[in-house]
């Protein structure tokens, strides 16, 4: 029996069109048919095999399904009998452990290795033996490695090479936080070993795998690894609780980028900490790039000492733990030294004075005199404004320029003045905790108070080495606000430096003063000059770029406008080299950041960026960094079900990353617009972990999918930094509300202390089991399932993929009005979701003209292609769960799309199946085009989709109170939990409904509620009252007639029916939304709602069942009611 790789199945039989999950093939005889089979998870936890007979005849491949039941048993036994005993390499890869299903002998790398010199030049090479010794001696090792040290590519190779040298079997799994990292690092490692990817080195990401039976080093995402652990828990549950070894065959597990503190990563660490008690032979290596390596080392000091003392098991408790933290090995990076300057240095350099009425000035007491502050000249609120302290004067080149008011005269600085300032010891430029620089740092002592908390005399004493003007400015500033005038002055100052005064020359000036880069305590390691690689020689006219870190797009726009009104930037060529960098900008605009201005122009590139430039994007010609010290961070208030995008101070870890951007190619300079005292004393070491600031419903689902018997709150309490109990409680309540989780009657826990209240047993419902397997938000997952049941799976997939990824609409910096007009052309049903759906459909069906269409309509081709890829992946999961026809593999659906002139292939595959579509079974497909999709988004199809959005997103509902005055915007109100008063909200400016004065319904559903300045709702759509009556919450007749829907705790309640005299009755949803209906209609609505709920429950429990004629009749009646074809009139409140 030959493996797929040995048989060259991809090239010989062109099987890539059939799917990527081919296990192996069996050539029965030359010229005879070939058997190929691939994994498919069954309910029993085994990986059954669907068998294809492939007849190779010229360029044609004829495929047909054999009888499943007759062959599956034979194939399953063949899979079990294979030596690797894991269901084949691809099956293991799908579970997250390809290459980890059994101990594998490590092949030696290629003899002639052109990469060897590069590998040995990496800083981590000097630590090779030390790391290997630590891994042998300790079960957990923490590696703190600066960016560029080589830890991700080299450390797993060192383990493989040591095993090969000792003749020992070895299986290494490396978990990466992102798909692109897993693929990129795997391909690099394979190249360094002189192999092709998929041999000894492979990778597995969501629905894509390149592994083989020889794979002994597997790179995967943390999500894939979690999926494997979940599958193992399912298999154990199916086997009656028999516990098999977890991560069987894996000898070494690396988890990279743990410092990013994603919710998934933190939870994985907790699961692995529990697992280590069962697997004393497993070696765990955590790799971090920033300051909190000690946090992980201390966390794993609590690894249970005794195998089997696992909290995961029923009645298990953590055993005795060691007090000794896991060892930490620190590896330096390969960056050049960066001179760090701070706010006090910036004020001293520029002589900046703070205007008393500026938005960034400390607010004086009311009796301090002065009238109202000058209105800001730029929009965007207090921190988004430049203020009124600049005035226009004629510039030397003609035209007008902005200059400070007379009370703050502008200063020009020559290189001589700059050198004089640094040599005078005015601010300890670059002086770190390791010594050097003196200045303010020596005066900090034990004083922990923030600068803004000091009275003027003590503030002046803290900064005694600086001028009185600097101390005065420090006292006048609001240190939590961005001083835009100072920021522009600094950019102008750095731009004005002659080309030969690059970042390298500025560092030499700092060294003349016997300073060093910021010391280890602040996050940058000081190294002797002899250790540094030689800096590239300075080129004539080589002007280092200036990278400015700002919180968001609003702040980028403010600085951009101010620079364009400055005489140094107002004219070409410099004007064109102010480059904004934000995730919402078009790819072409983002690519400009990598270009360099021609030396003959004499222009200096200025990049205005968010924290996307910290790690995601590297601009390799940056010599100067200006760090405002602010960033936008998403926070979640569970009690209000509301996210807020808050502007917060960066952490020391963020500051280190930003500072390091200036030292990628030569010595650089970073100017932080916060004080050195703030950095070293009051600033947080790292960001708040994601688990403490996002909704936890997905985490609770994962906990239950892993079969933890303890309450979710108890499991979450064991995380490295636990979330609040209220956040967990709210997540459980939301899962109960959408019927994904049910709470059974509380039972006393075994071994619980006397008097402790028993906890309710949390169990996943059938819906929750399905949602746990979908890699999307639980409400989006519910939309997918309902879309499949109501036969609009393709449309639901598009909406779900867009909500899970991002909008394809672009907003070019200089063409926003045109882009907004193009977006409104696609507006459908007053819905942001349907607007995106219409735009995507037009792109998908445009064939060869799609790229021109995207350019003309300001659509991101890359985003649309990513949406198509995500659609196919989600469709495969729906197919695996039997909500759509079986066998729809993502790769096969992509092949269908290629036959349709590049469509996503989903709709045709859903309607016809892969085989019929590839055989040209439909007229449209046979002609090379996608099946025609009628645009009914303003009609019944649109109403149905909005109703399913209501089913998925409820209770995220807005009540519209329209004004009686023509043209006036309506009042929008939403329910706030725990408050009797509704909360006023606004529609986000990016919505197609932002300027809508009249809606088709009194009710809107929305995807998220975000607080910035005001409270905004994003991605909204009007929904029919009948959609609310059919899908939303608990429905009852007021006065206690009947109840339909889910009550608290997931238990259905129903009370006796009341005889009512004629007239109207009130139907109420969750004691909140009320409708007045004729009495004769009341029973019809309640009966239909109950029948719909029974049908949905059955279909979700057994999705493979075909609907009966009665079931189809129920769905038809609901759709007709929603579409308004047969609906009685309703009176709202």
From TrEMBL:
<dbReference type="InterPro" id="IPR007502">
    <property type="entry name" value="Helicase-assoc_dom"/>
</dbReference>
<dbReference type="Pfam" id="PF07717">
    <property type="entry name" value="OB_NTP_bind"/>
</dbReference>
<dbReference type="InterPro" id="IPR002999">
    <property type="entry name" value="Tudor"/>
</dbReference>
<dbReference type="GO" id="GO:0031047">
    <property type="term" value="P:regulatory ncRNA-mediated gene silencing"/>
</dbReference>
<dbReference type="InterPro" id="IPR011545">
    <property type="entry name" value="DEAD/DEAH_box_helicase_dom"/>
</dbReference>
<comment type="similarity">
    <text>Belongs to the DExH box helicase family.</text>
</comment>
<dbReference type="GO" id="GO:0007283">
    <property type="term" value="P:spermatogenesis"/>
</dbReference>
<keyword id="KW-0943">RNA-mediated gene silencing</keyword>
<keyword id="KW-0378">Hydrolase</keyword>
<dbReference type="GO" id="GO:0005524">
    <property type="term" value="F:ATP binding"/>
</dbReference>
<keyword id="KW-0744">Spermatogenesis</keyword>
<dbReference type="InterPro" id="IPR059023">
    <property type="entry name" value="RNA_hel_CTD"/>
</dbReference>
<dbReference type="InterPro" id="IPR027417">
    <property type="entry name" value="P-loop_NTPase"/>
</dbReference>
<dbReference type="Pfam" id="PF00270">
    <property type="entry name" value="DEAD"/>
</dbReference>
<keyword id="KW-0347">Helicase</keyword>
<feature type="compositionally biased region" description="Gly residues">
    <location>
        <begin position="368"/>
        <end position="387"/>
    </location>
</feature>
<dbReference type="Pfam" id="PF26026">
    <property type="entry name" value="RNA_hel_CTD"/>
</dbReference>
<dbReference type="GO" id="GO:0004386">
    <property type="term" value="F:helicase activity"/>
</dbReference>
<comment type="similarity">
    <text>Belongs to the DEAD box helicase family. DEAH subfamily.</text>
</comment>
<dbReference type="Pfam" id="PF00271">
    <property type="entry name" value="Helicase_C"/>
</dbReference>
<feature type="region of interest" description="Disordered">
    <location>
        <begin position="82"/>
        <end position="102"/>
    </location>
</feature>
<keyword id="KW-0067">ATP-binding</keyword>
<feature type="region of interest" description="Disordered">
    <location>
        <begin position="362"/>
        <end position="387"/>
    </location>
</feature>
<keyword id="KW-0217">Developmental protein</keyword>
<keyword id="KW-0547">Nucleotide-binding</keyword>
<dbReference type="InterPro" id="IPR011709">
    <property type="entry name" value="DEAD-box_helicase_OB_fold"/>
</dbReference>
<dbReference type="GO" id="GO:0016787">
    <property type="term" value="F:hydrolase activity"/>
</dbReference>
<dbReference type="InterPro" id="IPR014001">
    <property type="entry name" value="Helicase_ATP-bd"/>
</dbReference>
<protein>
    <recommendedName>
        <fullName>RNA helicase</fullName>
    </recommendedName>
</protein>
<keyword id="KW-0469">Meiosis</keyword>
<dbReference type="GO" id="GO:0051321">
    <property type="term" value="P:meiotic cell cycle"/>
</dbReference>
<dbReference type="Pfam" id="PF21010">
    <property type="entry name" value="HA2_C"/>
</dbReference>
<dbReference type="GO" id="GO:0003723">
    <property type="term" value="F:RNA binding"/>
</dbReference>
<dbReference type="GO" id="GO:0030154">
    <property type="term" value="P:cell differentiation"/>
</dbReference>
<feature type="domain" description="Helicase C-terminal">
    <location>
        <begin position="531"/>
        <end position="707"/>
    </location>
</feature>
<keyword id="KW-0694">RNA-binding</keyword>
<keyword id="KW-0221">Differentiation</keyword>
<feature type="domain" description="Helicase ATP-binding">
    <location>
        <begin position="132"/>
        <end position="309"/>
    </location>
</feature>
<dbReference type="InterPro" id="IPR001650">
    <property type="entry name" value="Helicase_C-like"/>
</dbReference>
């Amino acid at each position: 029996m030959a493996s797929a790789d040995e048989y060259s199945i991809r090239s010989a039989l062109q099987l890539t069109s059939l799917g990527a999950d081919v296990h192996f093939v069996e050539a029965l005889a030359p010229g005879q048919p070939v058997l190929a089979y691939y994994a498919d998870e069954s309910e029993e936890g085994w990986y059954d095999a669907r068998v294809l007979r492939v007849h190779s005849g010229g360029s044609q491949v004829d495929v047909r399904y054999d009888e499943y039941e007759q062959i599956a048993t034979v194939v399953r036994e063949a899979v079990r009998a294979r030596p690797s005993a894991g269901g084949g390499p691809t099956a293991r890869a799908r579970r997250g452990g390809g290459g980890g299903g059994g101990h594998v002998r490590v092949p030696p790398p290629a003899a002639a290795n052109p990469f060897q010199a590069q590998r040995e030049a990496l800083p981590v090479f000097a630590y090779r033996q030390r790391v290997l010794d630590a891994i042998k001696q300790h079960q957990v090792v923490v590696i703190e490695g600066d960016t560029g040290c080589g830890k991700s590519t080299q450390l797993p190779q060192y383990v493989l090479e040591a095993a090969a040298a000792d003749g020992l079997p070895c299986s290494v799994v490396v978990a990466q936080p992102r798909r692109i990292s897993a693929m990129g690092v795997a391909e690099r490692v394979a190249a360094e070993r002189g192999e092709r990817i998929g041999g000894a080195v492979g990778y597995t990401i969501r629905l894509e795998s390149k592994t083989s039976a020889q794979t002994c080093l597997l790179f995967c995402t943390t999500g894939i690894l979690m999926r494997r652990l979940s599958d193992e828990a399912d298999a154990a549950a199916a086997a009656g609780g028999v516990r098999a070894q977890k991560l069987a065959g894996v000898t070494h597990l690396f988890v990279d980028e743990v410092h990013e503190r994603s919710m998934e990563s933190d939870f994985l660490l907790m699961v692995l900490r529990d697992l280590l008690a069962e697997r004393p032979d497993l070696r765990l290596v955590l790799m971090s790039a920033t300051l909190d390596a000690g946090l992980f080392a201390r966390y794993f000091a609590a690894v249970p000492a005794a195998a089997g003392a696992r909290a995961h098991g029923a009645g298990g408790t953590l055993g005795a733990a060691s007090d000794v933290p896991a060892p930490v090995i620190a590896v330096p990076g390969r960056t050049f030294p960066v001179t760090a300057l701070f706010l006090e240095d910036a004020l001293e350099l520029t002589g900046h004075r703070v205007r008393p009425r500026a938005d960034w000035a400390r607010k004086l007491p009311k009796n301090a005199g002065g009238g109202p502050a000058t209105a800001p000249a730029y929009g965007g609120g207090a921190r988004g404004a430049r203020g009124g302290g600049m005035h226009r004067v004629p510039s030397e080149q003609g035209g007008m320029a902005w200059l400070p008011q007379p009370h703050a005269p502008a200063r020009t600085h020559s290189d001589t003045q700059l050198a004089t300032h640094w040599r005078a010891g005015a601010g300890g430029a670059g002086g770190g905790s390791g010594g050097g620089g003196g200045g303010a740092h020596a005066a900090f002592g034990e004083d922990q108070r923030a600068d803004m908390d000091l009275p003027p005399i003590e503030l002046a004493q803290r900064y005694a080495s600086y001028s009185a003007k600097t101390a005065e400015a420090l006292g006048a500033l609001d240190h939590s606000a961005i001083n835009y005038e100072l920021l522009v002055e600094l950019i102008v100052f750095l731009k004005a430096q002659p080309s030969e005064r690059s970042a390298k020359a500025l560092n030499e000036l700092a060294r003349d003063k016997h300073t060093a880069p910021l010391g280890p305590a602040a996050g940058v390691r000081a190294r002797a000059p002899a250790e540094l690689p030689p800096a590239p020689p300075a080129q004539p006219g080589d002007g280092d770029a200036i990278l400015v870190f700002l919180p968001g797009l609003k702040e980028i726009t403010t600085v951009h406008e101010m620079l364009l009104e400055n005489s140094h930037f107002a004219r070409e060529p410099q004007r064109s080299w102010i480059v904004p960098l934000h995730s919402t900008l078009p790819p072409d605009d983002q690519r400009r950041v990598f270009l360099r201005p021609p030396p003959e122009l004499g222009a200096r590139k200025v990049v205005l960026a968010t924290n996307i430039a910290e790690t995601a994007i590297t601009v390799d010609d940056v010599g100067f960094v200006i760090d405002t010290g602010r960033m936008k961070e998403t926070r979640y208030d569970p009690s209000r079900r509301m996210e807020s995008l808050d502007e917060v101070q960066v952490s020391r870890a963020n500051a280190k990353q930003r500072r390091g951007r200036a030292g990628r190619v030569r010595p650089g300079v970073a100017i932080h617009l916060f004080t050195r005292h703030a950095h070293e004393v009051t600033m947080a070491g790292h960001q708040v972990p994601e688990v403490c600031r996002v909704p936890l419903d997905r985490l609770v689902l994962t906990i239950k999918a892993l079969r933890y018997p303890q309450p979710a709150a108890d499991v979450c309490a064991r995380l490295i930094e636990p979330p609040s109990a209220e956040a967990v409680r709210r997540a459980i309540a939301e899962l109960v509300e959408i019927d994904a989780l049910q709470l059974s009657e509380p039972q006393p826990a075994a071994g619980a202390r006397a008097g402790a209240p028993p906890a309710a047993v949390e169990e996943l419902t059938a819906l929750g089991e399905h949602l746990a397997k979908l890699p999307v938000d639980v409400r989006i997952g519910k939309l997918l399932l309902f879309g499949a049941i109501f036969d609009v799976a393709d449309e639901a997939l598009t909406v779900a993929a867009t909500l899970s990824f991002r909008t394809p609409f672009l907003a070019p910096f200089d063409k926003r009005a045109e882009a907004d007009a193009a977006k409104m052309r696609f507006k459908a049903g007053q819905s942001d979701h349907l607007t995106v759906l219409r735009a995507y459909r037009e792109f998908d069906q445009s064939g060869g003209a799609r790229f021109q269409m995207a350019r003309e309509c300001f659509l991101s081709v890359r985003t649309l292609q990513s949406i198509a890829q995500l659609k196919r992946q989600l469709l495969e999961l729906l197919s695996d769960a039997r909500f759509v026809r079986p066998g729809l593999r993502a790769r096969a659906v992509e092949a269908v799309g290629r036959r349709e002139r590049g469509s996503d292939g989903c709709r045709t595959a859903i309607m016809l199946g892969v085989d019929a579509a590839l055989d040209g079974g439909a007229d449209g497909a046979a002609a090379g085009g996608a099946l025609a999709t009628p645009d009914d988004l303003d009609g019944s199809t649109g109403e149905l989709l909005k109703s399913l959005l209501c089913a998925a997103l409820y209770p995220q509902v807005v009540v519209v109170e329209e004004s009686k005055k023509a043209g006036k915007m309506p009042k929008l109100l939403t329910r706030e939990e725990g408050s009797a008063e509704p909360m006023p909200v606004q529609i986000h400016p990016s919505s197609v409904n932002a300027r809508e004065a009249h809606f088709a319904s009194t009710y809107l559903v929305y995807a998220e509620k975000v607080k910035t300045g005001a409270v905004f709702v994003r991605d909204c759509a009007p929904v029919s009252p009948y959609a609310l009556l059919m899908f939303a919450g608990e429905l009852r007749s007021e006065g206690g007639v009947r109840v339909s829907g889910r009550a608290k705790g997931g238990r259905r309640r129903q009370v006796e029916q009341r005889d009512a005299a004629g007239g109207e009755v009130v139907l109420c949803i969750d004691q909140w939304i009320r409708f007045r209906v004729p009495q004769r209609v009341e029973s019809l609505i309640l009966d239909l709602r109950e029948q719909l709920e029974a049908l949905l429950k059955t279909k979700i429990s057994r999705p493979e069942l075909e609907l009966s004629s009665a079931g189809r009749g129920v769905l038809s009646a609901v759709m007709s009611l929603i579409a308004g074809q047969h609906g009685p009139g309703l009176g709202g409140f």
